[in-house]
Amino acid sequence: MQRVLSIVVLLVVTTLLAASASSAQSAPEKTPPQSDNNQAAATSSESDQPASNSPATAQLETVWFESAWYIPTTLSSWIQPSAWGAAIELGMNAASGNSDTLTLKTGAELERKTDSSKTVIDINYAKASANHLETQHYALLKTRQDLILNHSHWNWFTKQEVAYDEFKAFDLRWVINSGIAYRFADSDEKKLTGRFGAGVSREFGGPDNRWIPEAVFGADWKRKLTEQQEVKATFDYLPSWNNWDEDFRITADLAWEIRFDQPENLRLKVGIIDRYDNTPNGAKANDFAYSLLLLWKK
């Protein structure tokens, strides 16, 4: 459990540091007003200095220094709750009598958008039992950071995922990858993004604890059907660089959301999650989960 907490803390810190760069780049620089005497004195002193110390050069160096990704100059403003959008979902099913069943599905999503970046943190948890025997128990933590390159259709993305599943051959799987993405469609009615990159994954507490280098081919799609309905999907194909044919994983997430008239923040969500592992180490290769949830969205 300590290993799980350590990895989760590392993910959150990494996401905060990466996203703080975009805030530093988008934050305007404020210059205090100067009086005429101060301006004249500054002009006189600047004329005596070499060209390398000119105001333009100093300003350029200052902007570069403040926009470096490893310097969280605006971290305090970046983590303010008002800067984030939030969504919380919950679904439950229970029965008692000839058979006792209980199914719980919950999740949360945080999202922050600026002109130059987008950050998403997604959490999913599910547990099910039948006749007091556990039949399903998993938790997923996903983080993603997209940086828009020069206000174009190209993005640079970084994704991380921590997966716990009691019915897998491992205790914990950690996946991190990064690469380039291109937005083929980016409107309020339709969004489509393709991704390609590379990364590594590792399973902890299982028969194979190696770091495995992986490629990633992915796509994100979103379609607004009506003013109250939208469908979105995410797909990732992750083959091992060493063995593309026999060592790969596929993840897919599909959701259909229906917004209520009143209250406007409340929605009905139909969700499907599919996780396929071609090397399950004795467990089943495919895990398929579907849910009907009540969603509150800020």
What can you see in these coordinates?
- By secondary structure, the protein is of the alpha+beta class.
- It has one domain (83-297): Nucleoside-specific channel-forming protein, Tsx-like (Outer membrane phospholipase (ompla), Chain C), CATH 2.40.230.
- It is 18% helix and 53% strand.
- The protein is built from four helices and twelve strands.
- The chain has a twelve-stranded antiparallel beta barrel.
- It is globular, with a radius of gyration of 24 Å.
- Residues 1-5, 16-53 and 55-71 have low confidence and may be disordered.
Number of discrete domains: 1
Q: List the secondary-structure elements in sequence, H or E.
A: HHHHEEEEEEEEEEEE
CATH structural class: Mainly Beta
Write the CATH fold name.
Answer: Outer membrane phospholipase (ompla), Chain C
Globular, elongated, flat, extended or rod-shaped: what is the shape?
Answer: globular
Main sheet characteristics: 12 strands, antiparallel, barrel
Strand order of the largest sheet: 1-2-3-4-5-6-7-8-9-10-11-12
Helicity level:
10-25%
- Backbone structural class: alpha+beta
CATH architecture: Beta Barrel
CATH superfamily: Nucleoside-specific channel-forming protein, Tsx-like
- Radius of gyration, in Å, reads 24 Å
Write the layout of secondary structure elements.
Blueprint: H1 2-26, H2 36-47, H3 55-67, H4 75-78, E1 85-95, E2 101-113, E3 117-130, E4 133-148, E5 154-165, E6 172-186, E7 190-204, E8 211-224, E9 229-239, E10 248-259, E11 266-277, E12 286-297
Antiparallel strand pairs: 1-2, 1-12, 2-3, 3-4, 4-5, 5-6, 6-7, 7-8, 8-9, 9-10, 10-11, 11-12
